[in-house]
Amino acid sequence: MAVAFPPIRSLKDFLTDAQFSSPTFNDMDRMNNRIINNLIYYQSNYILTVIVIFLLVGVQWTVLNCVMLPNFFARFLHPKDLLIGAISLAVTLTVFGVAQSHKPQLAKIKRQYPLLVPVAVLGSAVLVVHALASILVFLWGFIMPLAVVMMHAATRKRNVKNKFANTVELFKEDVSPMTIILSKICNTEEGTEQERTNNSWR
């Protein structure tokens, strides 16, 4: 069974002439059906959307770092950064204290190299702060595009082309990547062919 990407839908179909409505939370079956079929029909557009937003977040973070580099020391005066740094330092000191109580070798090293411990603790705290910032940026770049995709899929009203394309999808020999993903997540392969055909027109 071959895997094939569907064509990219026009901007007119995807956004400009699209009709949107609020998600039908009172009819979850209908809303889930809309989301699944929109994800399949617009999957190529959604992939491009995710890539563009992810790149924009990365570029934004890079530009902000370049702009803020001259004010590197001023960043540490910001209350949020100061709080994160203090928490990271406290956690690092706590971890070191616990490790020292269980590992006598660490206490011996501390006595032999008194400057090594504060340098190591501060270095670890800096690495923790840097890692937290990187994780937050990654989560923002990962969650933001997914939220945009799900918002569009949940609110975009399906047109005749959408419904027809999803019906044809049921009888094609090749499958799309989104169909494979949804079949693993939502068990969309369950149910009779007739039920799936009926749902594709809801």
Automatic annotation (TrEMBL):
Name the keywords, alphabetized: Membrane, Transmembrane, Transmembrane helix
Q: Name one GO cellular component term.
A: membrane
Q: What is its main location?
A: membrane
> Which branch of life, at top level?
Eukaryota
Xref: InterPro entries: Prenylated_rab_accept_PRA1 (IPR004895)
Signal sequence, start to end:
none
Which Pfam families does UniProt cross-reference here?
PRA1 (PF03208)
State where the protein is found: Membrane
**Membrane-spanning residues where?**
39-62, 82-101, 113-131, 137-154
PANTHER family documented for this protein: PRA1 FAMILY PROTEIN (PTHR12859:SF0), PRA1 PROTEIN (PTHR12859)
Q: Which family does it belong to?
A: Belongs to the PRA1 family.
The protein, known as: PRA1 family protein
This chain's source organism reads Acropora cervicornis
